[in-house]
Amino acid sequence: MEKLRLFCRILLTSAAVAVIQPAHAQNLVVNSNFATGDFTGWMVAETGSGGSPHDYGVTSATDGGSKVPNPGDTYGAYFNPAGGVMSLTQTVDIPAAGTYLISCAVEPVVDDQDTLTISLGGAAVFTTNFEFGSPFTQISVSASAAAGSQVLEFQFTPGSGPMFFDDAGLVAEAVAPTPTPCSVLGSAAAGAVVGLNGTRIQNVFANISGDVCVSQGGWLDNVPPSTITGSVFEFKNGQYSGRGRLEGKLTVNAALLNTVNEDALNAAATVAAMTPTQVFKTIRRPTVITGNGGVNVIDINGNITDSVVLSGNAHDVFFINVSGTIDLRDRATLAVAGGVTAGAVLYNLTGTGAVEIHVRNVVNGTILAPNYSLELDGDFNGAVIGGGRNKAINLFEARVTQAACPQ
Asked: For 265-312, what is each residue's pLDDT tens digit?
């Protein structure tokens, strides 16, 4: 029970988090498990009178009747000042400002009050009291650090018996990458036009810069003088027809198209489940939506019938969930401003119906519209993904240019 209470204290202490360290992160601590058999790389300071049998040291043997090293290690450190504290410090070079994980293994030998305090850059980031003995307790602490030389300190206040210490670590914390339309879409991001299972695609006076995917149960009629600058991937032979220009190859790849469909549907569900950062009703008049400098999730509970401008910087990413349809008025645009790029924008239509983009309309961003038919006559800086059984993607005088993924 005492061990359970200590574990809960470690989890609940401010700034202390049980985290998995990155598998290949560099440990900035020198001689972290005392493999040299001494305190090479460390500085040791002591207050109080001498303990028994020794104040401190590194050994492969025992102290106070218990084995010093953490199991699996040859050497470990022990500290036993009578009525005082021991400090084990090391100056580390932080390569870049960020969040770092400080870890160690600690074992107080006697069941009494023993204290460990961890500091980085002169600021305490973690402290806890131990009220039980062996085995070693693994501790991992998340702390912010500035770049440059910083002092890492482990301070021990033993009770009536020694404390053992081993396996120190300081590594950069792994940061989850910012989601982007490309990362969320997976393989579905590879096509400029993607017809989902059962979708009929027709190009009439259209120009598609990129690849086209024709899924199971669908077909593509590339009517001249339409042009596809990339390749066409079909689920089986005979789904592509028309004498329009195809600059790339015609390839049958059922496995790829199954994956594309699965990734597209998973992306639609993932984006729909994101917590919104801003919420709007039907957009009937020109509207500017300003980003937060990171991931923006915009819920539009209704339709889009007039211009939307997504404004922000190069770090802004926009996921827009639209519960209704998109039917843009004359000359309306789905635009970007500031440093926002078309590749950082995804419109996810979550209902059913039809998307209508007219000849004078411009769309910046990818449209993901499962269960929708799409009547597209405008300019698209981004991909078009949608359709479904008995649905169609009709491109009449449309120009689709696949946008680059944000870096």
From this structure: 999 999 999 999 999 999 999 999 999 999 999 999 999 999 999 999
Q: Per residue in 101-125, pLDDT tens?
A: 999 999 988 777 789 999 999 999 9
* Closest residue by Cα to residue 106 from 152, 143, 153, 69: 69
The tokens describing 16, both together, are 């202390």
Residues in the chain, overall count: 407
Q: How many Cβ atoms from other residues are within 10 Å of residue 335's Cβ?
A: 20
Buried b (16+ CB within 10 A) or exposed e, 187-216: bbbbbbbbbbbbbbbbbbbbbbbbbbbbbb
CATH 2.60.120.260 domain range(s) in the chain: 2-172
DSSP letter for 256, please. H
382 HSE (CA, 13 A, CB side): 25
| CB-CB contact of 361 with 378 (8 Å) | yes
> What mean pLDDT, rounded, does the chain reach?
90
Alpha-carbon span 228 to 252, nearest angstrom:
17
CATH of domain 2-172: 2.60.120.260
